[in-house]
Write a structure and sequence with these properties.
Elements (H helix, E strand, L loop, with lengths): L24 H4 L4 E2 L1 H17 L2 H4 L11 H34 L2 E2 L1 H15 L1 H10 L4 H27 L6 H4 L4 H26 L3 H29 L22 H26 L4 H6 L5 H6 L2 H27 L5 H14 L2 H9 L8 H28 L1 H4 L9 H26 L4 H36 L20
Antiparallel strand pairs: 1-2
Helix pairs in contact: 2-4, 2-5, 2-11, 4-10, 4-15, 5-7, 6-7, 7-9, 9-10, 11-14, 11-15, 14-16, 14-17, 14-19, 14-20, 15-17, 16-17, 17-19, 19-20
Length: 501
């Protein structure tokens, strides 16, 4: 294990000499490395863990004769709600990990092993979630889930304590600060408040488990409740000047934007794992048994595979949905310079429903096996796709409202690319909402409507730029037919449409 050459000085002494600086800093602190590869590994693992939470929901066992009645709908809705809650808690752990390694600039062997211990605990979360959805009224599942979250917080607290013991591992701004103890106390409070709530939830699970779910939901919304409370306090009492020694602490609170690169890495991991889960279902459910091929199909593998045709159609439609949602997300972040806290929340909600797309695939692949309840399954699938897309659209709208802070300088409000982005991000919400509404009037054709949506949207993506250009040209032509209104009292505004080429 690596260690420092000198102990930490007292906090009231200027700490400029504690952390190595300059190009020779890494040589001075022998045994340290940059943390990029470890963070990439952690982001990949966390995105996998968050995504596989959907597996216990997708593998809900229903017999072919069982109706998709209210009891089944309630069971599925409960499992989806628990999945969304646990997915969001995993993303809270990922956000805490991201904040933590904004403070810790370099790692050594001890920090790397502590991070592995944290990741090992996180990988146990899907098992505890499976217990929660399989035995929703048994306290053991939620107790073990809370215990894992507490252990994750404890390991992260050890990382904080170790890094502050050896200042050369810290971010240079903190490592050179005379107020490292204040930093440490502040960061430990942020790291441990979620595990403290989970400790209470674990206690309540032993005698009143609904309170445990309420406390776990509080873990998710706590940063936003804290921000809202601070906003209300400032409005009622007026903004207060912080103490001099706490000014620099403000740059590391949960109010600051997350790293755009880590948001993209985590999001790409979720999309990639969702796409992989789709093909895993095909491999496990649609490879014919050799005995069936020899007996039922007289040795014809083609005939055996043709029986699974609807499942392959559902797979290609679901993969196209995942791929095009990723494409829209990629296009959005090409224009984004910095992801604000509200954009991070909307991105997390979108990813939670993207993680539910394997459930949509299971619902649509069951059309041929259970045609009597295809209407309900179409509506479940449309709802998942709608929410996955609408939160992306909301994220773009939020970015536009704070464009000076969030968007690249080349992204100009009212330009052609903005219109194109609006159309690209609105396509899936509009298509899924239209398909859902159509099933209310044409319920007999619900399967055909859904498959038509899956086929039409990719073609619409291919033609989208042409359609947007035609729409903008038509709007310019209509604008040119009417005389411009004169408003001398108003100042100049950004053009809503681009100037003619």
């Amino acid at each position: 294990m690596s260690g420092p050459q000198a102990p930490e000085p007292a906090p009231d002494v200027q700490g400029d000499g504690d952390a190595p600086t300059g190009p020779r800093g890494e040589d001075a602190a022998a045994g340290t490395q940059h943390s990029q590869r470890m963070l990439s590994f952690s982001d990949a693992l966390l995105s996998i863990i968050a995504t596989v939470m959907i597996l216990p929901v997708t593998h809900t066992e229903l017999s072919p004769q069982q109706q998709f009645d209210k009891s089944i709908q309630k069971l599925l809705a409960t499992r989806i709600a628990v999945y969304l809650m646990t997915f969001l808690i995993v993303t809270v752990a990922w956000a805490a990990h991201t904040r933590l390694f904004q403070v810790v600039g370099k790692i050594d062997d001890t920090l790397a092993l502590l991070n592995l211990a944290c990741m090992m605990t996180i990988t146990f979360l899907p098992f505890t979630f499976s217990l929660m959805v399989t035995f929703p009224e048994a306290p053991l599942g939620i107790f073990l889930f809370c215990t894992c979250v507490i252990a994750i917080g404890a390991v992260q607290a050890l990382i904080v304590a170790y890094a502050f013991r050896f200042p050369h591992l810290l971010n240079p701004q903190i490592g050179r600060s005379a107020h490292r103890r204040l930093y440490r106390r502040h960061i430990l409070r942020l790291v441990l408040r979620g595990p403290v709530l989970c400790f209470l939830a674990a206690g309540f699970s032993l005698f009143f488990y609904p309170a445990s779910y309420l406390l776990l939901a509080t873990v998710i919304v706590l940063p936003y409740v804290s921000k809202a409370a601070s906003w209300c306090r400032d409005r009622l009492a007026g903004p207060q000047e912080p103490p001099v020694h706490s000014v620099e602490l403000l740059t590391f609170t949960l109010q600051e934007p997350l790293s755009k690169e880590r948001v993209e890495a985590f999001s790409d991991g979720v999309y990639a794992i969702v796409a992989t889960l789709l093909i895993l279902d095909i491999c496990s459910d649609n490879v014919p048994d050799p005995k069936d091929v020899a007996g039922r199909f007289h040795g014809s593998l083609v005939a055996a595979l043709s029986e699974s045709g609807p499942q392959f159609l559902a797979y290609f439609g679901s993969f196209a949905t995942v791929g095009l949602l990723w494409f829209a997300h990629h296009s959005l972040f090409l224009h984004v310079r910095k992801a604000t806290q509200s954009m991070g929340l909307l991105n997390t909600l979108s990813l939670a429903f993207v993680g539910g797309l394997p459930l949509a695939y299971q619902q649509t692949s069951a059309f041929a096996r259970r045609p009597h309840d295809e209407l309900e399954r179409v509506r479940v699938s449309c709802a998942i796709i709608f929410f996955a897309g609408i939160f992306q659209f909301a994220m773009w709208t939020t970015a536009l409202l704070h464009e000076a802070e969030t968007l690249q300088p080349s992204a100009r409000f009212g330009g052609r690319e903005h219109a194109f982005m609006f159309a690209k991000l609105a396509l899936y919400p509009c298509a899924s909402l239209l398909a859902f509404a159509s099933t209310c009037f044409l319920s007999r054709f619900s399967t055909a409507i859904f498959h038509l949506m899956q086929i039409a949207v990719p073609f619409a993506f291919l033609l989208l730029r042409l359609l947007v250009r035609l729409a903008l040209a038509l709007l310019r032509a209509l604008r040119g037919l009417r005389p411009p209104a004169q408003h001398p009292e108003e100042g100049p505004r950004a053009p809503l449409l681009p100037a003619p080429c």
